[in-house]
Amino acid sequence: MEHLSINEQLSAAHALSQPAEAYGNDPNLEMMWAMKAYQHAEVYFNLISSVDPQFLRLTKVDDVIYKEFREAFGSMKIDILDPAELKSDQAKERWRPFCMKFDGVVDDFNYGTLLRLDCTKDYTEENTIFATRIQFFAIEIARNRESYNSTVFRSSVKQRKSSSN
Question: DSSP letter at 61?
Answer without folding.
Answer: T
